[in-house]
Amino acid sequence: MAEKTVKTQAAVLRSYKYGESDLILTLFGLSTGKVSAIAKGARKTKNRMRGTLQLFSIGNFLLYKGKSLYTVTQCETEEPFVILRQDLSKFAYASYCAEIIGELLREEEPNVPAFRLLSIVLSLIASGQEEFAARLFDMRMLKISGFLPEMCRCVKCGGHLPERPVFSCAEGGAVCCGGKGVQLGKDTLAVMNNLSKMDMQKTHRLRPSAKNLKEMEQVTRAYWETILEKSLKSVEFIERMRQFA
Ligand SMILES: [Zn+2]
Question: Which end of the chain is more exposed for a tag (fewer CB within 10 A), N or C?
Answer without folding.
Answer: C
